[in-house]
Amino acid sequence: MGLTLVFGVLGVGDFAHGDKMGWGMFLAFFVVSSEGANLGFAGGQFGSLSFGWGLIVGLLVAMLGVAALSVVLERLVFRRLRASGGGFFVFAIASLGISIMLRAVIQLIWGPSNFRYTPGIHPAVEILGGIKVKPDQFFIVGVTILAAVLLYWLLYRTRFGKAMRATADNPGLAEASGIDTNRIRVGTWIIAGILGALAGVMLGLQAEVRFDAGFRLLLPLFAAVILGGIGNPRGALVGGLTVGIAQEVSTQWINTGLKPGIPFVIVIVVLMLRPRGLFGQQR
Amino acid sequence: MEQLLLNVVTLVTFDGAVNWTVGFLTTVAIFAILALALNIQWSVGILNFGVAAFFMVGAYVSAVLTLPAPEGLESYVAGWGLPIPVGWLFAMVAGAVLAILLGIPTLRLRDDFLAIATIGVAAILRSIANSVEGLVNRSRGLNGVDGFLEDQVQGGDYRWVELAIALVVLLAVYWLVSRATASPWGRTLRAIRDNEDTAKASGKNTVKFRMGAFMLGAMLMGLAGAIYAHRSGTISPLTFSDLLGTFFVWTMLIVGGSGNHRGALLGAVVVGFFWFGTPLIQESLPDWLGSRVFQVRQLLIGLLIVVFLLWRPQGLLAERDRVSRFVTRGPDDRTRGGDQGSVWERLRSAVSR
């Protein structure tokens, strides 16, 4: 359940986003796994959590790595495409190509097997009224709330956030008012990269570390974003929760194998009834 | 799809080389149909990221209609043993129906919604096929799908018939899409892509035209799926992955030159040769590379898309500017390479650039 909160925070229409999460997941895995341990990050465990300092370091490495990756891609690919006047189509296809490449590189380095950050079974502890929760899940929920609050503060309480929203609304006007839109875009990629890495690591903690995990999440992600209204971080959080809960609860009534279809049904229903999303403004 | 192509070892003999080439050309012809179909949709600015879905629907519909009734552990719907051409026909109908269902909620909205909806429908169709009992035999897949005229031809020679079927259908599709794009209807599609507002202002119902192109492309993708099913004899949900079913076709289109049918054909051959040809050299590669050739190949497919978008967005064969058939040369002919003679000359200049 904690996982559902995580992907709500993301909000970029980038088809490679899922695979950037995958990269975050694996960079952290690299630090936690034996290769990383040789470098001295073995770390113990925090109380009843299943991980120690190793994962925290891994998380930081993952955030830095994915943010850097995003910036490099923006410099090498997206800025040039924008300069040559490519529209949304070109951007979308390019990000799909990048997504394929990122996944291939993960497979090249780590192979197609699945991993866990810490081997073994981690028992859940009982809280109120027989509900069982793993300690890790408290951590995931906590981190997600923290990330959401930070993002909100950044977007609505800082000059940078204001400039970011202005660039999203009308790049030409933003430039005319003296905003360096290229810098803003790089900044946005960095933030999205950090959030993606965070989500990837949390997902790896909650489930498994596998090469296509990020890509599998792409549809639920887009469903959450559309449900919440594109480019609306508050909406995305609520949308992420809704999609996640709907997906889990649905298994009460329908075949588990059909679970991946739920986000798709949500997307279609939302598009038919409220194409701007639950919180979208009418223009 | 790999298993359809013969093993490397067989290439040593002359017969083996012929067999490989026949198999390769058949596969490429099927993919070329997909690329042409995608081109029709792309030419009006429809971003279909779910080619695999239409391909899959066509394959399954044709398979269940022509298979005999299920026996034993098998369980699937229909199984009426209909003639194979009827299966093809219904595969096309099924593709078009799927396009209507998807197009109604999305075509009026932002461009990106259709992309997301199509990528989603491919995922959901795969999961339905995998998990609903009694529909299409779940992950066991459908086996024993007969080829067209297979009972009339000697076993070993049948691959020539397969190749002939694929090529004839490809030619028919090529003729159809060329006629369609040269017609007033095709002109309207280009007008909508280049400037939707102007097209609207000229009194064109753009949603209707886009729906038409979406349906036509989807029909042809369904047809390609049906041909594929009858050719391979076995289909399962795994066959229709996003990578091979969708992105691979996109790479063909981008590399060959989008918006132009000959480019789509050329792209299918070039990208197809790159993809299906890599296993051939696997043996002669150094070990560290040979064992990873499949991942490297996937990496290069992604790289090809990005590189072409950056440095040669028009593809190997650029779309010609079309003004009117009374104007032989476009306004800025030298810079955009309007009519530079034969395909080969243009290819050469494209490569040397």
Blueprint of the fold:
The complex is a heterodimer of chains A (283) and B (353).
Chain A: H1 2-8, H2 17-32, H3 34-41, H4 53-83, H5 88-110, E1 125-126, E2 132-133, H6 135-157, H7 159-169, H8 171-176, H9 181-206, H10 213-216, H11 218-228, H12 233-250, H13 261-273
Antiparallel strand pairs in A: 1-2
Chain B: H1 14-42, H2 51-66, H3 84-106, H4 111-131, H5 158-182, H6 184-194, H7 196-201, H8 206-232, H9 242-256, H10 261-282, H11 287-290, H12 293-311, H13 333-336, H14 343-352
Helix pairs in contact in B: 1-5, 1-8, 1-9, 1-10, 2-3, 2-4, 2-8, 2-9, 3-8, 5-6, 6-8, 9-10, 9-12, 10-12
Distance between the termini of chain A: 34 Å
> Which secondary-structure class do the elements of chain B indicate?
mainly alpha
Assembly category: heterodimer
For the largest beta-sheet of chain B, the strand count, sense and barrel status come to: none
Amount of beta strand of chain A = under 5%
Q: Report strand order across the widest sheet of chain A.
A: 1-2
Helix and strand element order of chain B: HHHHHHHHHHHHHH
As for the number of domains of chain A, it is 2
Kindly describe this structure.
- The complex is a heterodimer of chains A (283) and B (353).
- With 283 residues, chain A is an all-alpha fold.
- Chain A has two domains: 2-214, no CATH class; 217-283, no CATH class.
- In chain A, 70% of the residues lie in helices and 1% in strands.
- In chain A, a hairpin with a 5-residue loop joins strand 1 and strand 2 (132-133).
- Chain A starts with a helix and ends in a 10-residue tail after the last helix.
- Chain B is mainly alpha-helical and 353 residues long.
- Chain B has a domain at 2-240.
- The two termini of chain B are 34 Å apart.
